[in-house]
């Protein structure tokens, strides 16, 4: 079987190669990377970094951020290593090939960010690397919450993107880890469709929750809303 060739995905200040990673560049990861408020975070960890895109985005947004990028898949790490080394911020990102369950941190993180897998009961893909990337067997939001309970700094934040149902469950479970929602954003693919993703920010202090909706596209495909453009304009070349 001939391996499909993937072109580099070009952003305004960096490019992403995705020849080897099972999960390619998608709206979820870019939206989370742009939405996460990491402006005052010195130490950041991107759990399940894949191609490294979210980790690299945080360095573009924050000139002082130091990022650990953790990824279990060797295939994804091949792409992530190349992408990090080719970025303007290679000296501020360290790639670690490991599961987060086995990862031992020597620091507390000001921001923990992840676009985790969310398939549970669907048919597992034959490709084992794609299975790792898409299914909660190797990484779930509970794993991330457990890691957070031990490794988040006193005023740190956690940012996740999840399907709506999983996101609501995550909110309920998070309280057991003494984490509290501070921001939540319901993401709609189009205005006439129901929200399909939930962007979540947690802190370890109870605070008033900021809640809003975000519509990605107008009626036509690739006709993006002004809201979506505003969030992602520092990255996408088309805006």
Structure description:
- The protein has 239 residues and is of the alpha/beta class.
- It has one domain (9-232): Rossmann fold (3-Layer(aba) Sandwich), CATH 3.40.50.150.
- Helices cover 28% and strands 27% of the residues.
- It has 7 helices and 10 strands.
- The chain has helices at residues 27-35, 53-61, 74-86, 128-134, 141-151, 164-174, 226-232; strands at residues 9-10, 15-16, 43-47, 66-71, 93-97, 109-114, 152-163, 180-190, 197-203, 210-217.
- An 8-stranded mixed sheet has the order 5-4-3-6-7-9-8-10. A two-stranded antiparallel ribbon has the order 1-2.
- Helix 1 packs parallel to helix 2 (53-61).
- It starts with 8 loop residues before the first strand and ends in a 7-residue tail after the last helix.
Share of residues in strands: 25-35%
Relevant CATH superfamily? Vaccinia Virus protein VP39
How many E-type strands? 10
Secondary-structure arrangement, i.e. CATH architecture: 3-Layer(aba) Sandwich
C-alpha termini separation: 37 Å
Main traits of this protein?
single chain; 239 residues; two-stranded antiparallel ribbon; eight-stranded mixed β-sheet; Rossmann fold; alpha/beta
């Amino acid at each position: 079987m001939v391996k499909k060739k993937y072109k580099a995905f070009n952003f305004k200040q960096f490019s992403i190669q995705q020849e080897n990673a099972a999960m390619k560049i998608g709206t979820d990861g870019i939206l989370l990377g742009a939405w996460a408020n990491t402006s005052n975070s010195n130490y950041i960890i991107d759990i399940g970094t894949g191609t490294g895109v979210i980790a690299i985005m945080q360095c573009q947004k924050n000139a002082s951020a130091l990022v650990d990028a953790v990824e279990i898949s060797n295939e994804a790490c091949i792409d992530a290593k190349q992408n990090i080394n080719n970025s303007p911020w290679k000296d501020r990102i360290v790639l670690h090939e490991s599961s987060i369950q086995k990862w031992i941190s020597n620091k507390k993180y000001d921001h923990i960010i992840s676009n985790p897998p969310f398939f549970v009961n669907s048919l597992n893909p034959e490709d084992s690397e794609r299975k790792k990337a898409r299914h909660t067997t190797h990484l779930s939001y509970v794993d991330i919450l457990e890691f957070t309970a031990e490794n988040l700094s006193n005023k740190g934040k956690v940012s996740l993107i999840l399907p709506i149902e999983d996101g609501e469950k995550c909110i309920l479970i998070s309280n057991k880890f003494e984490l509290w929602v501070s921001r939540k954003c319901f993401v709609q693919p189009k205005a006439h469709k129901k929200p399909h993703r939930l962007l979540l920010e947690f802190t370890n202090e109870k605070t008033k929750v900021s809640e809003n909706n975000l519509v990605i596209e107008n009626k036509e495909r690739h006709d993006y809303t002004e809201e979506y453009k505003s969030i992602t304009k520092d990255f996408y070349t088309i805006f």
